Amino acid sequence: MGTIVVIAEVAADGSLARISTEVATLARTLAAASGHDLRGLVVAADPGAAAKELAGYLPEVEAVAAPELADHVAPQRVAAEAVRLARSADLVLLGASPDGRDVAGILSAVLGRGVLANATAVTWDDGPVVEMSVFGGRLNTWSAFSAGPGIVTVRTNFVTAEPASSVGRVSAVDAEPADGSPAVRVLERVAEAGGAAPIEEARVIVAGGRGVGGADGFRVVEELAEALGGAIGASRAAVDAGWIPFSQQIGQTGKIVKPALYVGLGISGAIQHKVGMQTADTIVAINRDPDAPIAEYADLVVVGDLFEVVPALVAALRARSA
Amino acid sequence: MRIVVLAKPVPDTTGQERLGPDLRVDRAAVPAVVNANDEYAIEAALKLREAAGEGSVTLLAMAPESAPETLRKALAMGADSGVLVTDPALAGSDTLSTARVLAAALGRLEYDLVLAGADTSDGGTGTVAAGVAVLTGLPYLSYAAKIEPTEGVVRVRRISPTGYDLLEAPLPALVVATQALGEPRYPSLRGIMAARSKSIVAWSLADLGLDPAEVGGAVASTKVLRAEAPPTRAASRVIRAPAAEAAAQLVDFLAERRLI
């Protein structure tokens, strides 16, 4: 049997991205069913820490030190290093993150191999069977590769990361020689205020929409998020109005999230937003309009003025934990 | 500043989209619109041309024959002309074929900058632009929140988990746009009328020197095995009560589900 390769993602601080632990866990499940060997690949300016962490999930990890990644974007270099392993792999798995998508797209063109993207589940049946959600979540599809090897990107939050029962081996591998592909330099890395953990990783999300009325109104959203220990999200209307940054936007042109709890405040929940949060385990809506689209698929709808209900809810939550 | 924008007509997300009997996207089922993310790329292109005071914005799309009407709206926003690669053999193409076709088309165009949207609402892989960059040899700068061409290079703010990375690459380059670049303009009445006489050129695979045995639906690398509507969620519970009472019921609900 051949190999399944997991291409890991490394954060700017050198730590392993959470999504990679999920993808590695998925890879182990597939390999158990298929009999494939497993390989992880970590490419970073200093790959040691991330490789060690990935070895907690995979039996074999290759660590490639690429010092120029200190001031060059990662995907091109990662893909160049991955070609060696990917070329002979039956399946390449990556997280469906911005960097993961870039690496997948580059590898697809370099190797002439197909991509199945944004998988919500992958099983093995004489080849990977990849489940995806299409048409704004109204249809689930199961797809396969027509001719052998392929590349799959996996959505975060659909697989629960689980360390392996024993720690794998890390081998340091020399970087490939430069292949002459255009290098994109990083002049500066800027951290912006409120650079909180990505909302895709939050277990609880409180999102504000048009009904919140303004940047001031978002204070109410923040208070509830804090009381619930969650992150702040937003609909496109709130982002376009400038009340909250684009990085918090949930929906068709924003982020796809799958929290345990999603609370929508003043959000109508039309299709473009629904696509981003409909797989949340529990959906609560607080809205003045009982006929808002979100009422059709929320688990609980509170019809009322969010500026009255939310403070009362925050007070009740604080009293409870006091 | 000559800019080419990769634009894809996709089924309008009205809720009526569906797969055909062959389990491929049924592109005839609902009217097509320009993919939402591509509109941000078009808007960014128009702004860059305005800032430069000269130049051109050309749309490049691979789509069914019926696509020209969909491209008219983007032309009405202010783009100058369109190139449509259309060929029956391309129906059912995967992302790899799409990247190959777009790269071949770019090989016959002259440009300083190529812009693309982040992903599409129909297939949504977000991998085509990266593939096009590889096949054309262009520097690839993705997830752009800001684009600044200057003196033969382009500087891009690439959204990162903590903020952004400021990138630089020589022109010509391929940049992937995000919503952070700014709201697309609505076409003006004058723009709509002007669009009627703007040129949309159609190229076939033969025009690009591509072989239908090597690109298109016949060599699609992926296939849909089956499709099903997802399980519906249980009906919602509605609370209409004064704030304090509603809050108390909400807390009970969350406690029951072990969310607090």
- Into which percentage range does the β-strand content of chain B fall? 25-35%
Helix fraction of chain A, binned, reads: 25-40%
Give the spatial strand order of the biggest sheet of chain A.
Answer: 5-9-4-1-2-3-10
Helix and strand pattern of chain A: EHEHEHEHEEEEEEEEHEHEHEHEH
Mean pLDDT of chain A: 92
- What's the N-to-C terminus distance of chain A? 57 Å
Q: So what's the oligomer here?
A: heterodimer
Going by helix content, strand content and strand pairing, the class of chain B is alpha/beta
In short:
By secondary structure, chain A is of the alpha/beta class.
Layout of helices and strands, plus pairs?
The complex is a heterodimer of chains A (322) and B (260).
Chain A: E1 3-7, H1 18-34, E2 37-44, H2 48-54, E3 60-65, H3 74-87, E4 89-95, H4 98-111, E5 114-119, E6 121-124, E7 128-134, E8 139-145, E9 150-154, E10 169-173, E11 185-191, E12 204-208, H5 218-228, E13 231-234, H6 236-240, E14 261-265, H7 271-277, E15 282-287, H8 294-297, E16 300-303, H9 306-321
Parallel strand pairs in A: 1-2, 1-4, 2-3, 3-10, 4-9, 5-9, 12-13, 12-14, 14-15, 15-16
Antiparallel strand pairs in A: 6-7, 7-8
Helix pairs in contact in A: 3-4, 5-9
Chain B: E1 2-6, E2 9-11, E3 32-34, H1 36-52, E4 56-62, H2 68-77, E5 81-85, H3 95-106, E6 113-117, H4 128-136, E7 140-150, E8 153-160, E9 163-170, E10 173-177, H5 189-195, E11 200-203, E12 222-228, E13 237-239, H6 243-256
Parallel strand pairs in B: 1-4, 1-6, 4-5, 5-11, 6-10, 7-10
Antiparallel strand pairs in B: 2-3, 7-8, 8-9
Helix pairs in contact in B: 2-5, 3-4
What does this structure look like?
The complex is a heterodimer of chains A (322) and B (260). The mean pLDDT of chain A is 92. With 322 residues, chain A is α/β, with parallel strands linked by helices. Chain A has helices at 18-34, 48-54, 74-87, 98-111, 218-228, 236-240, 271-277, 294-297, 306-321, and strands at 3-7, 37-44, 60-65, 89-95, 114-119, 121-124, 128-134, 139-145, 150-154, 169-173, 185-191, 204-208, 231-234, 261-265, 282-287, 300-303. In chain A, strands 5-9-4-1-2-3-10 form a seven-stranded parallel beta sheet, sandwiched between helices. The longest helix of chain A has 17 residues, at 18-34. Chain B is of the alpha/beta class and 260 residues long. Chain B is 27% helix and 28% strand. Chain B contains six helices and 13 strands. In chain B, the strands form two sheets. Chain B has a nine-stranded mixed beta sheet, sandwiched between helices. In chain B, strands 2-3 form a two-stranded antiparallel sheet. In chain B, a hairpin with a 2-residue loop joins strand 8 and strand 9 (163-170). At the A-B interface, helix 4, strand 5, strand 7, strand 8 and strand 11 of A face helix 1, helix 3, helix 4, strand 7 and strand 8 of B.
